């Protein structure tokens, strides 16, 4: 049961990454929906399907809590398990893809900003930071994006990995100490400091912790859920997130973060119900589906690369295409832009695959030298 459930979670995290990539590429290449001159049924479906980026963030953090938190807790409870060795192994994987991704991304951003600035691509993205100093690179090697520093260049998505990292550390601080009071104090300290430095961290932390708790108690929860009821709850939570989220500009500024966090939590609950209900689906239980399992096992490196490192390549590719074909940034829908849309998405996945393979080689080299396990971990 555990193996099949983890396989399913891996595929849902792939879906989260895919939703985020589609949203970001469409954001750069095609005009916002309200600015589109002619709308049809197919175009409406396309825009809806590529507008689920934020929901992809919610799904990513929820499933991360299930895999990083729930699976880790299960391992740590085994007799003779080395929790700190497990944490060190995850840190090794983290830096094995972060360092190459950060350096290659910085090179792409620097080249694009210098050579392709006239296309307006880098000016269009208001979170782009043109500081490529050694200090900026060193700061971004630590998981402090949005807490203390912005992302390097266009790599603004690094904040999501920073939130994931600190949620994991808060969870470890809470469950590892032998004294519960000590663990509660350490976990609360990480949560409070993180929330003061980046208020939106609270919502993501709650989603991550929800995922860890749900994985731990999943067998009890699954007994109370029917697939029909779970699907209805999921659809209702998704529509609520999309409809209310599209009107956040009408909410007073001081309440926007609270409303957004509540929307994310209710969508997280809907997702949880759906994931639990689908946990016993035959497609994930079929032992002949070796490909499903292998792809899910290979997920941590590739998916993290997609989330953390796709922006520099995407920005560079869109800027280069804009100059080569003379298309404007965020232009009106046309066949050429849809073709470029598909090409850029394919390039991002090829880039993520290449970086994930490089990360695997680095882990083998460094892990073997330190006597650590070298096989990719599921979480």
From TrEMBL:
Query: Transmembrane ranges?
Result: 12-33, 45-71, 92-112, 156-176, 182-207, 265-284, 305-330, 336-355
**Ion transport: present as a keyword of the record?**
no
Q: What are the alphabetically sorted keywords of the record?
A: Membrane, Transmembrane, Transmembrane helix
Keyword field contains Membrane: yes
Any idea what this protein is called? Acyltransferase
Q: What is the lineage of its organism?
A: Bacteria, Pseudomonadati, Pseudomonadota, Betaproteobacteria, Burkholderiales
